[in-house]
Amino acid sequence: MNFPDLSGRVAVVTGGARGLGYSLASALARQSVSVALLDLLPEVHESATRLAAETGVATTAATVDVTDPESVNAAFVAVADTLGIADILITAAGITVWGDAAEVDRAEWSRVIDVNLNGTFFSTQAFARPLIAEGRTGSALLISSMSGRVVNVPQNQASYNSSKAAVDQLAKSLAVEWAPAIRVNAIAPGYFLSDMTRQFTEANPELAAEWISRIPAGRMGEPGDLDGLASLLISSASSYVTGQSFVIDGGYTAI
């Protein structure tokens, strides 16, 4: 079967300045989807310019704090004014903090939950409102993690694990509430060579070696390893799929 045409659609990608977010945005742009990149990093504007130059599609960008619903809502209004109402959402904004649970302070714990869970919810909420108001359909893809299902070792990251488990449940809850108009699914990556993981692996090569030793595929994931499933879940080829979370981890959680 031919893969469904995504051209003419409009996507918002949070955490789109770099890493997995930018890679997923690029995959959509290569399928002629207009793309808006949202990120707290000011470099998001340069990323959008580069994406437009590489793919020839219309792009825009906004510096956004996903933990601030007013900031998020304003960004979605600006995207609609520039590209049209978004009918695709990918929530890739997220952070990780390592530390012993007995010692983590409230601010550090709250920051991870605020970005990973609350930021995902505020973004999905802002995405859904205009679609619901106009009786339109759309597809949201929340970036979760295998850490929402297993406790990876040896690092201690209770806040991250908890936030990603909540993202999986959020995808289910919103999928049921907004069906059949808006499909909501999640992708749960394992160890990927993203900007977030590189900050740990480059400083601790022995840690990267330990991670890889536990992955049956024998390597960490590359950002492009997410593209195929993401495109499928966004497209009409998966029109009967909603409320699901799909692990892409090279077999890590199968052990």
Task: Give a short synopsis of this structure.
With 255 residues, this protein is an alpha/beta fold. The protein contains eight helices and seven strands.
Layout of strands and helices, then pairs:
Elements lengths: L9 E5 L4 H11 L4 E6 L4 H12 L3 E5 L5 H14 L5 E4 L14 H29 L3 E6 L14 H21 L3 E8 L5 H7 L3 H9 L13 H8 L10 E4 L7
Parallel strand pairs: 1-2, 1-4, 2-3, 4-5, 5-6, 6-7
Helix pairs in contact: 1-2, 3-4, 4-5
Tags for this entry?
255 residues, alpha/beta, Rossmann fold, seven-stranded parallel beta sheet, 8 helices
> Strands across the major sheet, in which order?
3-2-1-4-5-6-7
Q: Judging from the principal axes of the Cα atoms, what is the shape? A: globular
* Structure annotation, total helices: 8
| CATH topology description | Rossmann fold
Total number of strands: 7
CATH architecture: 3-Layer(aba) Sandwich
Assess the beta-strand content as a share of residues: 5-15%
CATH class: Alpha Beta
Molecular structure report:
- 44% of the residues lie in helices and 15% in strands.
- It is α/β, with parallel strands linked by helices and 255 residues long.
- The chain has a single domain (10-245), classed as NAD(P)-binding Rossmann-like Domain (Rossmann fold), CATH 3.40.50.720.
- A 7-stranded parallel sheet has the order 3-2-1-4-5-6-7, sandwiched between helices.
- α5 links the parallel β5 and β6 (182-189).
- α1 (19-29) packs parallel to α2 (44-55) and α4 (106-134) runs parallel beside α5.
